Amino acid sequence: MNGVNQSVATLVPDPIGDIKLLQITDTHLFANREKGLLGIKTVESYDAVIKHANKYAGTCSAVLCTGDLSQDHSAQSYVDFSDRIKTLKMPCYWLPGNHDMQEVMLPSLLSEGLAQAKQLVSEYWQIILLDSQVSGVPYGHLSESQLTFLEEKLQQYPNKHTLIAVHHHVLPVGSAWLDQHILKNNEQFIALISQFDNVNAVLSGHVHQEFDVEKEGVRYLTSPSTCVQFKPQNNEFAVDDKAPGYRYLVLTKSGKITTQVERIDIGEFKTDVNATGY
Fold first, then answer.
1. What is this structure's pTM?
2. Which end of the chain has fewer CB within 10 Å, C or N?
């Protein structure tokens, strides 16, 4: 779609003004709950991640879901996503990934009561959620309307610290097979945000692995999937033996970000490279 939804949501900070967040990404759910990717039933690994993340319930301002929520584009997969994310009992804000079908995603999530807001604001911070989907292809691109939306929101609150969320990774992660599916106009994006001194970090999914690099004062973060993990620094497709996970972030009122990746016990969620899927 790559259109812009103008709705704004308010983030409620903790008593000292910090914003605490969870990032859940790349759930890749199917309508058939018995289906999976590389031997992992994605609804079961997602359920295990949500149960683990429940230790943060009541302490976080929101959960950010950064795309590829569905693998098969089905309405049922988005209902299953919603049913579980709502058990965290905090607002959920989301954006599309390359595997999502927005014509199904949007009405399904809205019918389940998940907010459509793409700008989240608190006293000290704003979070901007962008749509980098290009229909039918795995790589990302930010349309002119998305770039204009981003620029307008950065101009609107020049004194607020800013976190930008987008599905596709902006900086190469060092794996050729993944980096060919990067945000293709990343240089244009970086040039835009470099005009503002209030952009603190960019948060992405897509690469199914942890990544944390600072460039020109901006921190670029990616996070594990709730299902299959991709092995870092491999030029050919390779899966990692790490467990599914998610990210916890604290955005302090001073602009500092503290963050950690959390993983479930790997248990039954080991990938099988001989299995079907992906």
1. 0.96
2. N
